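User: Show me a protein chain along with its predicted structure.
Assistant: Here is one chain, sequence first, then C-alpha cells.
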Amino acid sequence: MPRTWCVQCGKENPLPKRGAVRRFCSAACREKAKETAERYNAVCEFCGDPFRCARARQRFCSLSCVTSHKNAVRYADHVYVPQGKGHRGRAQRYGVRYEVFAARDVFERDGWACGLCEGDVDPKVAWPDPWSASLDHVVPMSRGGDHVLENVQCAHLRCNIVKGASLDAGTSAQAC
C-alpha cells in the first residue's frame, strides 16, 4: 500500500482500512480543511436562490433542484393528461366522451344477458368472480369508443377480459 500524506498538515497518514486512500490524518485536520476551503458564491439555475459552494461551476443548490431540473427538461413537451380512476379517468386519458350512468341500469336494460357469449349473467355473483357482471364497451375506449349508454353492454367479466381491446366479440363467445 503506498504511503499518503495529510492534505492539511503534511504529516504521514496512518495506514488505511480496507484499501481506502486517506486525505487527512485526523478528523481535526478534516474540519480545519473545511473551514479554510475556498467557497464560491453562486445562484441556483433552477430555484434562483443564492448559495455557497465548494466548486466554482456548481449549478444547483441541492439534489432536489438537480432532480427537478432534470424532470423539467425531460417533460418539457409532455402534455398532462389527468390520471383519474375508473371509466371517467380512462375516458379523459383517451379523449373520448364520458356520460354518467349506473352500471346496474345497463345490466337491467340488457336483461342480465352477456352481450358477448349471449349467456345469462347471475346478478348475485360479485366481482372478482369470472362470471360476475361487467361493463363492456362495444367499441373500446382505447380504440376511440365513447363511454355512453349506446356503446356499453352487459358482459361476463371473463368474456370482457378475453375480448380485451378488440372490436371482434367472436373470440370471447368461443371461450364461454
